[in-house]
Amino acid sequence: xxxxxxxGMMGSGKSTVGRRIAATTARDFxxxxxxxxxxxxxxxxxVFEEQGEAALREIEAAEIRRLSGExxxxxxGRVIAxxxxxxxxxxSVEAMRRSGVVAWLDAPAGVLAExxxxxxxxxxxxxxxxxRLAEILADRHSLYQQAAHYRIDAGRPVDGVVTGAAGCARxxxxxxSEVLIGPGLPHRLLPVSRGREQAVVICQPGxxxxxxxxxEMLGSEARATLxxxxxxxxxKSIETLARLYDRLAxxxxxxxxxxxxxxxxxxTDLAGFIAATWLRGIESVLVPTxxxxxxxxxxxxxxxxxxxxxxxxxxxxxxxxxxxxxxVLSRLPEPLVLEGSAEAVKAGFxxxxxxxDLFMKHGPAFPMAExxxxxxxxxxxxxxxxxxxxxxxxxxxxxHTLGHGIExxxxxxxxxxxxxxxxxxxxxxxxRLGFDEARVRVALxxxxxxxxxxxxxxxxxxxLVQRDKKRTASxxxxxxxxxxxxxVVEYVDGAALRLGLAAVGITG
Length: 508
Description:
Distance between the termini: 47 Å
Shape: globular
Strand content: 15-25%
CATH architecture of the largest domain: 3-Layer(aba) Sandwich
Number of helices: 21
Mean pLDDT: 91
Number of domains: 3
C-alpha cells in the first residue's frame, strides 16, 4: 500500500489525525514540519524569520521528494502530515500524488482560527487571525483542490475526520492502472488527458444514482453521454455489445476519449471489453457500485462477454483508474454485500490470512474500509506480477473452476457460486494436500455464505467446466490450498472434480 498524504491549512488537524490513523493501522507517522525543523536545526518560525519563506519551502519540498521515493520495510506506506504550504510547489504535489493518495483536510477559516488561537505562526503576524487565515485559504483553495484526490470535512469532530481520511487509499496495479479508494468520489474522476473530448458512461438500472453523480462530475472534464444496459449478466450479451458499438459510432467517439463503467461486475466487464475493442483500444475508468465489482471484477484488466459460457469472449485491457466509493458500498443491500464478501475472503484464503481472521472476528459486520483495502491490495499485487495470467495470477481463480459451472447450472449469483466452489476446492485440497477443509467452510459460514447446493447434477456442471478457460491440453487447472495463504495450481481429473462436487452436495 502507498503513502497517505495529509494536506490542508494550519489548524486543520493534520498531525492529530495522522497520528491516530497511523496508530490504528500500524503504520509509521511522519510530520514534515518536524523533519524540516530537524534538518534546519531550528523551529519553523525560526527558519521563516532567519532564512525566509522561500528557504522554508525548499527544505520542505526536498523532504517530500525524499519521502515519496522511499518504501517502508513492510510495504505498508506511511501516514504523512505536510505543512500548510506544501501545495505551493508543483513538484511536491506531483511527488505526493505519484507515491500515494492525497487527502485534503478542509475546514472554515473561523474554525481554524479558534484551533490555533495563541500559537506563533509567522504568516499570521500583524493582523486579525481569522481574516488572515481566510485570505490564505482563498489563495490556496484551488491548489488544495488540484493536489487532493479526496476532500475531507475537517470542521467536524476529530473522530469523523479520522474515519474519513483513514478510508483513503491509492493502490497501483503495476504501471498500468491505479485504484482509488475513498469516502466518496474523488475530486477528478478521470486522469488528466489533453486530447479527451468525450466520455461515455455505461451503467445499469441499479446504479443510476451513482451514474448521475458521475455525469455531474464529468461536466467540467469532458462532454458526457449516459448509456444504460440491462442488469446482471444480461448486460454481457452480444446483443447488448452490438447496440453499444452502434451508439459509439453515432457519437463519433474518438481514440483519445474515455469509456466509464458504473455498476457491478457485469458492467465493468462489459465496459472494459468495449474500451479494449473500440478503435482497437481506448481509455477506460471503472466505478464499481457493488462489493464484488470493487474487490474483484473491476481490477486486473480482465474483460469479457458471455457466449455459450461465462466470459468466453474477452480481452486483457487495464483501466487507467478504478474508483471505489466506500459511501456507495456502505449503502448496499445485505445480499449484495454478502455476495461480494465471497471474493473478498477469497483474497484472504490465497494471500492474506489476517483478512480471513478479520472476517472470522466480525462476520457479516466486518469493517468495510479495511476489508476492501486488504482485498484490493492482494489482487493488485498478484496482477502486477502476472498481467496476462501466465503464472501466479491463476491463484485468483480459487473457487472458480467449479464455481463458474455451478453459477450457470444453478442460476446462482456469482459470489454465492464461488463460495460453494471454494468449499469444493478445499475438499480436493484436503484429499490431495492434507488441508483442513473446515477452515474454508467455517469462514464462509461465519459470513453467512452458502457452502452446499443440491440443485444440480455433476454431469451438468462438468459439461460447462470442460468449456471453461481454465482447461488446457494437460487438463483442468484447479487452485488448491496447502494452507491459508499458500495456494498451488494443479491439474485435476474427473474423479477429483466429482469429489469436490460431492463435498458440496452435488452427487448422482
